[in-house]
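The protein record quoted in full:

***
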Amino acid sequence: MQKILIIEDDRDIAAIEQDYLELNNFHVEIAADGISGLEQGLHGDFDLILLDLMLPGMDGFAICRRLREETNVPILMVTARREDIDKIRGLGLGADDYIEKPFSPSVLVARVRAHLARYERLTGGQKIAKPELRVGGLRLNTETRRVFVNGREIELKNREYALLHFLMLHLDMVFSREELYEKIWGLEAMGDNATVAVHINRVREKIEQDPSHPRYIQTVWGAGYRFKGQ
């Protein structure tokens, strides 16, 4: 199933986009501000990004510029602006198309399908994946499954690697023990999810300079864990 990221601060518009895309068999994730949208876009392995122009935290132009440094997936800007200069600027930064508000949801889906098909033709159906994830002094190579901390390679067991990889793909997002248990162990959260805390501690021991005051994998009390991006 192809993955679409919607970066949109208007909840109603985001919900409409999500509903129509999911009805057409796309997996959809939503970011409600520019900063989290950029992080998800850089690390979430999406097939297409719907990017609003006016966003809190970081505007669509800055996000588009940054995304184009890392990925070549289609970017469709969604905006209420009608000035040609804005369209020219966005296209110059690497956006593939513009969709003006208000828009027909069916037209949106058609545009998404068209750009996905065009991208597949250009790439031969092979998505160019980022071989490495980097945050601070931590580096994870997704092709070799090797992990380095400040240039020093560390050894992770399979579940430890899977847990770290998942969290690094979803920077600053909070996941409960139950959610992590289901994602990493591939089971519904009916077992002993205390194993998540055990594995979190093991990974911390290997990647953190001070595991008791973690810089990367942080505990969000009463909610779960998150991997801090900056």
